[in-house]
Amino acid sequence: MGDVKILLDESEIPKQWYNVAADLPVPLPPPLGPDGNPIGPEALTPLFPMALIEQEVSTERWIPIPEPVRDIYRMWRPSPMFRARQLEQALGTPAKIYYKYEGVSPAGSHKPNTAVAQAYYNQKEGCRRLTTETGAGQWGSSIALAGAMFGLTVRVYMVKVSYQQKPFRRSMMETWGAEVFASPTNMTQSGRAALALDPNTPGSLGLAISEAVEDAASREDTHYALGSVLNHVVLHQTVIGLEAREQFKKINEFPDVVIGCCGGGSNFGGTAFPFLMDKASGKQVRLVAVEPDSCPTLTKGRYAYDHGDTAKLTPLLPMYSLGHDFIPPGIHAGGLRYHGDSPLVSHLVHLGLIEAVGVPQLATFQAGVLFARSEGILPAPEANHAVRVAIDEALACKQTGEAKTIFFTLSGHGHFDMAAYDRYFAGDLEDYAYPEEKINASLAALRPVSLG
Amino acid sequence: MGDVKILLDESEIPKQWYNVAADLPVPLPPPLGPDGNPIGPEALTPLFPMALIEQEVSTERWIPIPEPVRDIYRMWRPSPMFRARQLEQALGTPAKIYYKYEGVSPAGSHKPNTAVAQAYYNQKEGCRRLTTETGAGQWGSSIALAGAMFGLTVRVYMVKVSYQQKPFRRSMMETWGAEVFASPTNMTQSGRAALALDPNTPGSLGLAISEAVEDAASREDTHYALGSVLNHVVLHQTVIGLEAREQFKKINEFPDVVIGCCGGGSNFGGTAFPFLMDKASGKQVRLVAVEPDSCPTLTKGRYAYDHGDTAKLTPLLPMYSLGHDFIPPGIHAGGLRYHGDSPLVSHLVHLGLIEAVGVPQLATFQAGVLFARSEGILPAPEANHAVRVAIDEALACKQTGEAKTIFFTLSGHGHFDMAAYDRYFAGDLEDYAYPEEKINASLAALRPVSLG
Question: What residues does the Tryptophan synthase beta chain-like PALP domain cover (chains A, B) (predicted)?
């Protein structure tokens, strides 16, 4: 048996992030203000430090990773890549399956890759307090961790359904010193408005974002941190794909297909964008974003200008969206319950450079259990979406006899998601129908994106 | 900043386990049967495969690790060693602190090191079903994982207090395909007897062992697997210390003190025994076993012959014990709630080659929170015992100005222990007084160990 893990040295942690904005065949349309006109970077200064705003609009291809950020990355990076030999055997596929495991970070997912960078820049520019939202708790944990590393106070608005499903994610954030509240709260106008409409709302990422943004905008000492969607967030996650490319070089392989689960888009974009450089230089590689078919942003949403949050506090972003009022069912992949998607991922899907596919909840858990029993690692429900499609690709190879090289990012472990596995085994989980007819009208009202 | 992680290649996974029985200055006294006479290996055949029985009594210094076991080890081994630079800074100590992190295994602790070996030998000798007990759930998870890897059916008797405190450990075992029951159950004679005495008993490791042994002994197709205490179990864990010694060689360092938490003794023995070779060759190194002061086996128990379980189904083992009837308080370090200890660890403590220290519960959580906020990783409550003593050693260095090299094994992560952290933050955790007077009489009745 050859090596199971493909490892890099600490010296091989990337020294620069890859900014896909430099290589877009058509430029990314700008965000718009409430008046419908493009907004400049200055509109973001109440929420973000200048360094992150500059990254948000930059078209430089390579952006240096500050040494203090790389020093924290050393705690878990470079993350390992694994050959999934036992999964291959279980499937009886001629395909080779590789996965990069981001669950080795202390918070258990890819999210600290950007949390650490965001905390660093905020601290460097004198910010002392951060607010944020979290869905499944992966992001909140990560910013809590990063806050502890850089001495920042952190407040997390956690989507209520996840707060209830994952009490120990809250404990984890508190252990790292953060304050955590179930969103909607009665501490913000956005929260109070949502509770007035429906006191039993399960909450949503869009709503939690509204609360965190409102909190940050109302205090001088506070900035806001977003765990996905925005360009600078996806930028920081490109360490995943950059390392993966080096890992493939070490073993003289190259993937035929690159797969990532996609909610706000940072895990998928961070994994896939660096491979666009290979695609541009003529290599054949498919890039596949996987989303839940109950929240099918890329596969059934509209490419349009929409707000990132429910209360319409954020600028209008050019993205695939199901409408900022869309509240997805309480599926267990909380990190994928977002009405919109990264503008960069959306743009590249729209341009045809990236594929998107939706998968039903039960099939993702089935894939996750098979993965756990063969590869050992217990995946997060979000990551199971990528596992599902990797398995489907491998099974297709079994039909055709092709020995494709399949690569996916296993974005996090499921240690805080065992209640979901319990419900899956008990037969209590459902597949949800997406209410297509119900929301088509509101989608049609969104302002379309013009590519000039 | 130098490297934070000290890594080895997969080719550097040890090819042999180190058997400290070969190097004891005084031989280990034999286990005794119910008649008080030494028992031979054949007495163990209803419970264990021959290969493990041979390891149990072997005095060969090096025992080859089968390739199929090394192949599974590759999933997470060699485990990383970290320099705890941020903890050092937080403490303001001149000491250097290193820790080896065993939480990288899929089950989240060191336990799979032996679980995989035990499952392998059982499967190889035709066994199809394993029973075991688990305290904190670390061991049960590990044997569930190993069972999945080698196609064995696994039944786990889980100490009731842990079953209640850690429901998601159960889910994890079930995800890997194991059956899990809260012990005492009404499915065994030992369980029924315990429930008759006290229907509300929190259970204990000793009692759960009784149930698992009774189950295994009553079925032809079933063997029993023990997660600690026995010689072959500690043997398998020596991969920890063997790798650590190689990692120290890579950085030209050597520890002044080696620390491990100690319940049944496999984590501590696995960490410390290989360093006895250095001690024997004249190097100065202290080996410190850390236990909870509410279950102070090594520090307040008697070195005597005692049963490993409550129902007296096991042979009499020569070990430090608090008496097989001792049921420790429901502290959150469930893996350290054992009345006895590894005969090998006990013997070496008795011979003065190993030190032992007891620490109170609250101080261990305080240490764990400081560790989490500086090093990122959230330790298991068991591991916090080692963290506590490492910090105490580092603070002593701060007083004396000595730049000692402190090494400990962080035996597992605390992802399934967040309820304990919750209780710690809420002020609901207690330090327990050990009932010294109450049990001294029963200790005095134990048969002393003669070293011949």
Answer: 76-412
Considering only the beta carbons, identify the residue of B9, B177, B422 that sits closest to A373: B177
Neighbours of B182 (CB within 10 A): 17
Compare CB distances from B148 to A108, A373, A416 and report the shortest one's residue.
Answer: A373
d(CA B155, CA B212): 8
Is A347 inside a domain boundary? yes
Contact B374, B90 (CB under 8 A): yes
φ and ψ at residue B360, rounded to 5 degrees: -80, 155
**Residue pointed to by tokens 């405190």:** B165
Task: Decide if B86 and A168 are in contact by the 8 Å CB cutoff.
Answer: no
Report yes or no on B175 lying in a domain.
Answer: no
Q: What average pLDDT score do residues B366-392 get?
A: 98
CB contact under 8 A, A378 and B175: yes
Mean pLDDT per 10-residue run, chain A (452 residues)? 86 98 96 92 93 97 98 97 97 98 97 98 97 91 98 96 86 96 97 96 88 95 95 98 98 98 97 98 97 95 92 92 88 87 98 98 98 97 98 98 98 94 94 86 88 73
Q: What is the largest CA-CA distance in chain B?
A: 62
The pTM of this model reads 0.95
Nearest to B10 among A3, A104, A171 (CB): A3
User: In the prediction, which pLDDT does A2 show?
Assistant: 67
Which structural domain, as residue segments, surrounds residue A277? 5-10+66-108+231-448
The CATH number of residue A324's host domain is 3.40.50.1100
Instruction: State the ipTM, two decimals.
Output: 0.94
Q: With contact defined as beta carbons under 8 Å apart, do A218 and A249 qualify? A: no
Whether residue B161 contacts residue B202, with contact meaning beta carbons closer than 8 Å, is answered with yes
- Answer whether B75 sits within 8 Å of A4, measured CB to CB: yes
Flag whether A276 is in a domain: yes
For residues B93 and B84, what is the distance between their CA atoms, to the nearest angstrom?
A: 11
**H-assigned helices in B166-265:** 167-175, 189-197, 205-217, 231-250
The answer to whether residue A117 sits within a structural domain is no
Tally of domains in chain A: 1
